Amino acid sequence: xxxxxxxxxxxxxxxxxxxxxxxxxxxxxxxxxxxxxxxxxxxxxxxxxxxxxxxxxxxxxxxxxxxxxxxxxxxxxxxxxxxxxxxxxxxxxxxxxxxxxxxxxxxxxxxxxxxxxxxxxxxxxxxxxxxxxxxxxxxxxxxxxxxxxxxxxxxxxxxxxxxxxxxxxxxxxxxxxxxxxxxxxxxxxxxxxxxxxxxxxxxxxxxxxxxxxxxxxxxxxxxxxxxxxxxxxxxxxxxxxxxxxxxxxxxxxxxxxxxxxxxxxxxxxxxxxxxxxxxxxxxxxxxxxxxxxxxxxxxxxxxxxxxxxxxxxxxxxxxxxxxxxxxxxxxxxxxxxxxxxxxxxxxxxxxxxxxxxxxxxxxxxxxxxxxxxxxxxxxxxxxxxxxxxxxxxxxxxxxxxxxxxxxxxxxxxxxxxxxxxxxxxxxxxxxxxxxxxxxxxxxxxxxxxxxxxxxxxxxxxxxxxxxxxxxxxxxxxxxxxxxxxxxxxxxxxxxxxxxxxxxxxxxxxxxxxxxxxxxxxxxxxxxxxxxxxxxxxxxxxxxxxxxxxxxxxxxxxxxxxxxxxxxxxxxxxxxxxxxxxxxxxxxxxxxxxxxxxxxxxxxxxxxxxxxxxxxxxxxxxxxxxxxxxxxxxxxxxxxxxxxxxxxxxxxxxxxxxxxxxxxxxxxxxxxxxxxxxxxxxxxxxxxxxxxxxxxxxxxxxxxxxxxxxxxxxxxxxxxxxxxxxxxxxxxxxxxxxxxxxxxxxxxxxxxxxxxxxxxxxxxxxxxxxxxxxxxxxxxx
Length: 780
What we know:
This protein is an alpha+beta fold. Helix content is 15%, strand content 25%. It has eight helices and 41 strands.
């Protein structure tokens, strides 16, 4: 035991000296000396070992309380190893040879110090310092909203966000805070589509939110099949296999389908081939299919008799598998509007990020908006190509047909972390929300959420359209969540901020040849995390916490918007995003938002390229199939090494919570409540359900009954919450990861159903599956 303590003390001493040299805490150096001295005393069988160790534990307790107060998890990480060692020192196997006991001398001192540590830990466990209690306002007298114009039956879910305004809100009220605990599984459907097939990329993901139209559900799988189910029983009605191939095999960075889109027939437009409307499905090989919701067959009038159109038309740099639309397309009365994803950090010669509008009946091109050539929106001439490598929109757009605008969340120009040669147009439209005229594709307004983005802070979320009451007046608003934690609330007519937006100074000092913007926009309604310090470093033990502190001080970190560097920069929040494609849920009658902020830090390091063929980044590797290596940035002077900021044991270096649920009042721009959310049951080596607050990937849904639902946390649960105060009211264990946005609808039996897709997510390594699960209250 003496040798063990001495060796550990020596390791702490050496690493502590390194940390002090980097400008960090002196604690570990002193702790190493005391632990090593304890080892010497134990080895020579001196009872002074207990007194020295008691001094170490007492000093650690006082230091920990000074650094983190009564914050349970950071406190535990500083004390856990020492408390275990202290208890071990008080056992008869140690005190016997030392000719002492826990009742006298150094043993009594150590016993009292351990008791004080237990009291501090118990006090911390009874109070969550990260919890913000509060209440959201009750429902107001409803005012006319954009949702009322859609004519969607209350029991349907006809678009990704239920309607094209992207609110993720249902007017159903059968499930309430009083009865949600009674929800039970009504039926389960298994699609048979599991990740892990030959050629699957790591990012093979179930992110789909099904549609509910009439008495059927419609959804797609990662491998691109489309399935229709009976909404009340879960029985399969039909299945369509699009036979997606890329040069004979899949070769993709992503294998994702977030959902389908639906065109409802109108009295003036009843297609003869598909009289009950059309389902639109973008495929991984770059096609857009139009399917008959009755039987899954192609609507042959669309696409010159083919039932599909080729999205590779006029696209530069043909490279099958490197461009397609992972998100559902926008459908209006006369148009289907399509964006697409391109490869991040592969080269400077990727495909175009063009946004295209096609005639909804024939598939003919109506207009195209290329963000690098924004004024030329007339249909491109045959034989011409769109601008290569222009910023794209991979997420979900929203539309207000009354105002005649589609609202497009924009990404960045590859490579994400190097922007030396971006054009003025690219600088204008990267990482922005852009309002395009439905008739012409011309820009009506643009609001940029990040200037000169070097952090992959593209706009990931569908904008939510809602009418707000501001100073007694009705204002058509757009709520735009961002990766950096802002909720920009804008007038959707003009793009002008409704809640204040200020430009704050940003860190400077990009690598030579590039630059950083002098300021960055900050919203009044912001979930920006506090700036990190050495005391915020965490780990399961004091040893990996020390490793995190050393890593923290070796990286460049000047707060949010620290530029990527060859030294290595700490990016917090990282490109996983405070908010991602799941967006937020908005209640248009209460004018509130249910949100799911996530906080993870990443490390971004620029790696100088020697030439355009050598692989400079081994952790990027070469994906399966025919695609080039990721993160290499061929054509740029730097490759990029990206990794999460974690300890040697794989735990986040930043202290929990890493995930919350939170409620915001959109009219006032205030966050009313915020609670840590989720357990580490499916993340830790030992499946213990510690409620630490875990990351979320997938959106929430709100209902008029006052209950919100979420399944995207990285533990395998679906949960229900009281919207007013955020209390968790119900949870159900899922058979796989639920990284998709739930939805709710009414079945033919009159019951309100909650629908959850649980298939797992390759990027977050949650459990794979193929489940569609419906929950409902017991039949009366």
